[in-house]
């Protein structure tokens, strides 16, 4: 018989948390204050243990412990690339009170001199089947809950020592600068806009100044083009948007990004035209994976310029990252530079993304968990793997 898992209060909005507290007997007059205190401990201080919430009475802490969790996943594996990129395999029990099998999720941390980016997953597997993406070969297992999406951020910060040190100053809160995780990108496993409500709830908490307090300019959602949800992202989340474009005509895009059959290029680009004004952001990022002899000709660069006319854009050229069994090759460096050079000549910022963490299969499109497979145990011996506490 499957067992009921306890509910995580990570990812609950203020109203839901108030209801959770009322359900364990916190009085109406106290609920608001307790919600504020809990949010402070959970997000600003990052505590993972109710007993560290020192301004709550012992009996309330005991009640919380008996009924709720702080959502942390089991860390099945933590790998560190030669370039410093880290990849975690997190295991979540269903945290929404439902029964359910545990699921494994990958999350990647990419340190750079100017920023530290956490690449967060929204689903286990993906129901879309983009032909160049490893996640697309894994069957869709389920949507992640808001709790599980945020818990990836909290668990990464736990491991990176990115929470403020309460031993040094009990009043200190997470500084908004100097954080190890300064940016969040919804570019891990899954299509975030096919899990809209949970992704929205998680990101609104990430953006809330009294929770994680990320700036809207530092939170980016990437979509393969779920057009009806793009407008809602603009008006309800208002974060930065990246579009996985990858092809400049419907015929090729139907093949590479099959959701294009449902929402073709003209509809996608129309949604992009209105996004910056509604979301109040400067521009949209278009992602373009460089596939040798498939989408990397100069004619295609020309067509790209034509298509994006009138949309404030930046174009990220992503060298294709191979995975076992993939059917494509990465374009040559020379061809990528010619393609980028043309776009720059036409006034587009078009950086070529340096692949990060390829050696640990952490680069774009290489993520694929093995939720269907039997559990792995933490490893400590192989090169690139660190010991877990
Ligand atoms: N599902 C969302 C977000 C996850 S994928 C989306 O498709 O946008 C993050 C980015 O990596 C997307 O632009 C995706 O198209 C790209 N990508 C997927 N597989 C890749 C691969 N093998 N090499 C390089 N980029 C890849
Ligand atoms: Fe899913 Fe994005 Fe991969 Fe396409 S590229 S299969 S939408 S994760």
Can you describe what's shown?
The chain is α/β, with parallel strands linked by helices. The chain folds into two domains: 7-69, Orthogonal Bundle (DNA polymerase, domain 1); 74-360, Alpha-Beta Barrel (TIM Barrel). The protein is 31% helix and 16% strand. The protein has helices at 14-23, 28-44, 58-67, 146-160, 196-207, 227-237, 250-256, 265-279, 298-307, 333-345, and strands spanning 7-8, 68-69, 74-80, 86-92, 103-111, 116-119, 123-124, 142-143, 183-186, 219-223, 240-244, 284-290, 313-319. It has a nine-stranded mixed sheet with strand order 3-4-5-6-9-10-11-12-13. Strands 1-2 form a two-stranded parallel ribbon. It has a two-stranded antiparallel sheet with strand order 7-8. Strand 5 and strand 6 (116-119) form a beta hairpin. Helix 1 (14-23) crosses helix 2 (28-44), helix 5 runs parallel beside helix 6 (227-237) and helix 6 (227-237) packs parallel to helix 8 (265-279). The chain is elongated, with a radius of gyration of 21 Å. The structure holds S-adenosyl-L-homocysteine and iron/sulfur cluster. Iron/sulfur cluster binds at residues 126, 128-130, 133, 135-136, 190-191, 224, 244.
């Amino acid at each position: 018989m499957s067992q009921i898992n306890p509910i995580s209060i990570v990812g609950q909005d203020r109203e839901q948390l108030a209801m959770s507290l009322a359900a364990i007997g916190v009085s109406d007059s106290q609920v608001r204050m307790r919600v504020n205190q809990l949010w402070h401990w959970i997000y600003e201080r990052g505590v993972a243990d109710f007993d560290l919430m020192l301004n709550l009475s012992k009996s309330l802490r005991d009640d919380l412990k008996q009924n709720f969790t702080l959502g942390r996943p089991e860390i099945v594996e933590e790998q560190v690339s030669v370039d410093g990129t880290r990849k975690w395999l997190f295991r979540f029990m269903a945290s929404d009170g439902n029964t359910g099998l545990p699921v494994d999720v990958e999350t990647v941390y990419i340190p750079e001199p100017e920023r530290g980016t956490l690449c967060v997953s929204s689903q286990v597997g993906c129901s879309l089947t983009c032909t160049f993406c490893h996640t697309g070969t894994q069957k869709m297992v389920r949507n992640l809950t808001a709790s599980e999406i945020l818990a990836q951020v909290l668990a990464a910060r736990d491991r990176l020592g990115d929470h403020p040190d309460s031993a040094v100053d009990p009043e200190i809160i997470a500084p908004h600068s100097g954080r190890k995780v300064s940016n969040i990108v919804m570019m891990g496993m899954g299509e975030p806009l096919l899990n809209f409500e949970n992704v929205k709830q998680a990101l609104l908490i990430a953006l809330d100044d009294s929770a994680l307090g990320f700036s809207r300019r530092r939170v980016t959602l990437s979509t393969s083009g779920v057009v009806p949800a793009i407008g809602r992202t603009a008006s309800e989340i208002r974060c930065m948007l990246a579009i996985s474009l990858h092809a400049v005509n419907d015929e090729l895009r139907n093949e590479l990004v099959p959701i294009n059959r449902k929402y073709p290029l003209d509809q996608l680009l129309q949604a992009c035209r209105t996004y910056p004004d509604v979301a109040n952001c400067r521009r949209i990022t278009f992602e373009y994976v460089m596939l040798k002899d498939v989408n990397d000709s100069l004619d295609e660069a020309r067509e790209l310029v034509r298509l994006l006319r009138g949309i404030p854009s930046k174009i990220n050229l992503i060298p294709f990252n191979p995975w076992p069994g993939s059917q494509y090759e990465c374009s040559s460096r020379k061809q990528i530079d010619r393609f980028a050079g043309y776009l720059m000549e036409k006034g587009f910022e078009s950086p070529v993304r340096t692949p990060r963490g390829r050696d640990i299969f952490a680069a774009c499109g290489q993520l694929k968990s093995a939720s269907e497979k039997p559990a792995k145990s933490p490893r400590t011996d192989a090169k690139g793997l660190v010991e877990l506490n």
